[in-house]
Amino acid sequence: MKYEAGEVKVVAYKHGKKWATDVVKTTGPATKLMLQNDREKITADGNDLSFVTVTVADKAGLLVPRSKNLIHFSIEGPGEIVATDNGDAISHVPFQSRERKAFNGLCLAIVRAKPGESGTIRLKATADGLKGATISISTRNPH
Fold this sequence. Notes:
Blueprint: E1 7-14, E2 17-25, E3 32-37, E4 41-43, E5 49-57, E6 70-76, E7 79-85, E8 99-101, E9 106-113, E10 119-127, E11 130-140
Parallel strand pairs: 4-11
Antiparallel strand pairs: 1-2, 3-5, 5-9, 6-8, 6-10, 7-9, 10-11
C-alpha cells in the first residue's frame, strides 16, 4: 500500500446513536508556535498559576506530532515562569529551565503572578526557523 496524505475520521456510536467524532489530518512542515493558556486571569498572590500549552503547528494551525523543536521562553510584566515541561519521562532538563524541547509537538510553561503586582504578563515562545508566539495573562490583587 502506498502512503497518501489525507484525513481519517472516526465516529463512535453508543446505543445506535452518534456519540463522539474525531478527525486526524496529515500535517505540513512545522512553521509556527501557538500558545493557549488554561486561564487568562490569575490572582497576584504568589500562588495562582496559569498553564500555557505550546503547540508546534503547520501553516494551517495543525499540531505537527513528531516535532522536537527547542522552545525558548521569555516573560515580561508582573509574573515569572515557575516551570517548563514536555511530558517526556526520560528528559533530564530541570523544570526551572527557560528552554525545553517539544515532545510530540507539545510543550508547557507554568506562569505565576508576583505577589501584590497587578497588570499584564506577556509570555513569549520562540524557536529557530518557526514564527514565535506571545500570550497575555492578566493579574489582579487578591483584595
